[in-house]
Design goal:
Helix 5 links the parallel strand 4 (94-100) and strand 5 (125-131). This protein has a 7-stranded mixed β-sheet. The protein has one domain (8-253): Rossmann fold (3-Layer(aba) Sandwich). The relative contact order is 0.17. Helix 6 packs across helix 10 (215-232). It is an alpha/beta fold. The chain has 10 helices and 7 strands. The protein is globular. It comes from Pseudonocardia adelaidensis. This is Trans-aconitate 2-methyltransferase. It is an enzyme of class 2 (transferase). It is found in: Cytoplasm.
């Protein structure tokens, strides 16, 4: 996965909404006393702290491909390291791997999952969460705008197939795990503030646009996108906006034998 710039502060603007799926994922991991726990794609490290609290006797490793995120995690006291998930393999003694809202950025991840599961020791747990909303208006409108004459060819964006359906993840993980738990949840998130959906996607989905365009062009792109998002996600009478967000979860537990 190519490392591109992230804005940790912007990403954390919606910390509560972004953290809840991680907590829901972690609740389904039944490891009791793992030797090593890996946060694969740790971001600014705010959720890595939950892993350390859950398993205080484990060695907790935090990895991310973004230098900005690694720096932010280290500022929190998390011993984060720079690593690309495409090249990563679990080392001996890795009993838990958690990767949260990361693999949607890695086109090859369906090929990586069986390889990781095979390399993990008996009894290990693997847990992943990816957004399942790449076909939603919040993302479709970005792709539509990027395809218009002014922006065409300026930026490469993910399509809907960047994330697979739950049944596909079940099949991929079941090849190397005794128990597989896959589910999806749509969170109906209440956002507030001016153009809140635009602010949300600015921290994630618009990152490739920001990286590809000059600052002035990026602001022009956002200005064109804003009214389209307001039309797709109109505010409520109290000024807040409901933002449905579908997420896909999978937890695999390898046999003890």
């Amino acid at each position: 996965m190519t490392a591109t710039s992230w804005d940790p502060a912007l990403y954390l603007n919606f910390d509560d909404h972004r953290s809840r799926p991680f907590r829901d994922l972690l609740a389904r991991v039944g490891a009791s006393s793992p030797r090593r726990v890996v946060d694969l794609g740790c971001g600014p490290g705010h959720l890595t702290e939950l892993l350390a609290a859950r398993w205080p006797g484990a060695e907790v490793m935090a990895l991310d491909s973004s230098p900005d995120m690694v720096a932010a995690a280290r500022e929190r006291g998390v011993a984060a390291e720079l690593a690309d998930v495409v090249d990563w393999m679990p080392s001996p003694g890795t009993d838990v791997v958690v990767t949260n809202a990361v693999l949607q950025w890695v086109p090859s991840h369906p090929r990586l999952l069986p390889r990781w599961l095979e390399a993990l020791p008996a009894g290990a747990w693997f847990a992943m969460q990816v957004p399942g909303n790449l076909g939603a208006p919040s993302h479709a409108l970005i792709r539509e705008l990027a395809a218009e004459p002014r922006w065409r060819g300026s930026v490469e964006l993910r399509g809907e197939l960047a994330v697979r359906e739950p049944a596909e993840y079940t099949e991929l993980l079941a090849m190397h795990a005794a128990d597989v738990d896959v589910w999806e949840t749509t969170y109906l998130q209440r956002l507030t503030g001016e153009d809140p959906v635009l602010q949300w996607v600015s921290g994630t989905a618009l990152r490739p646009v920001r990286d590809a365009l000059a600052p002035a062009d990026y602001e022009a792109f956002r200005a064109e996108l804003a009214p389209r998002l307001r039309g797709a996600y109109p505010p409520n009478a109290d000024g807040s906006t409901w933002f449905p967000f579908r997420r896909i979860f999978a937890v695999a537990h390898k046999s003890q034998v």
